Amino acid sequence: MAFYKHYSFDLWLTLIKSNPTYKQERVQYFFRNFNSKHKSIDEIAITFRQVDLMVNAINEKAGKNVDADEMYLMIISMINDYDFNFSEVDLEVLDQDMEQIVFNHMPQLYCTDCLTVLDKIKDSGKSSTNILSNTGFIKGKTLKKVIEHLGIGQFIDFQLYSDEVRMSKPNAGFFQLMLDRIDRTKHPGLLLSDVIHVGDNPHADIRGAEALGINSMLINSNKLSILNLLYDTV
Fold first, then answer.
1. Which of 114, 168, 169, 227 could in theory staple to 59 by disulfide, Cβ–Cβ 3.0 to 4.6 A?
2. PANTHER family from the entry (predicted)?
3. For the CA atoms of the chain, what is the radius of gyration?
């Protein structure tokens, strides 16, 4: 195995995946608490999917970030036939409840090889690592707790989330922020060719990385998996 000096990883559908019961419970919560028009469970689930797809496309196009709070308000408005009276919505309570649903229905490792590969990279003593992730309904502050629970955190040197820095992949500024955070005392004279970003999204991950001139590897949405990193060469 030939090691890069720094490995950047996407999170969702690269290292972790959603617990199916999480989305079901999230819909149930809005069905119970914000459903004055008596929409069905299926209608609310469709609204979540529509907002998720729309905001993801907006973030990737604009390179900025629509926050989870804003997404939840969109959901509340849409399932109540575009009622914009949010006076009874306590965003702090909503945030706490949404985080608790995540913890009750914890995301899962994308595959059993994820920790093996991360351990191999870290054990080499030659490489540093980071997570570079766009966020949606789940905030970066929550995801940090998730990756500790899943055992990923011990292998990661730093984490960057779009909701915390107001930028989303493929924004070159987000990738540059990642490059700027790499420990240059460990990697003096670091070159762009020494860095690789790994993710599942051809646009956000691969084109974003390549636009900045760093290496990239598409996994999981094609025939490659994280195991291919063990056979990749600089």
1. 168
2. HALOACID DEHALOGENASE-LIKE HYDROLASE DOMAIN-CONTAINING PROTEIN 3, PTHR46191
3. 19
**b vs e for 161-182, b when ≥16 Cβ sit within 10 Å of the residue's Cβ?**
bbbebebbbbbeebbeebbebb
pTM beyond 0.90: yes
The domain boundary residue, chosen from 59, 83, 105: 105
Q: Domain range holding 113?
A: 6-18+108-230
d(CA 131, CA 144): 10
What type of residue sits at position 72?
A: Y
The 10 Å Cβ neighbour count of residue 86 is: 12
Closest CA to 167 of 66, 39, 42: 66
What pLDDT, in 10s, does the model give residues 71-115? 999 999 999 999 999 998 999 999 999 999 999 999 999 999 999
Amino acid identity for residue 198 in this structure: V
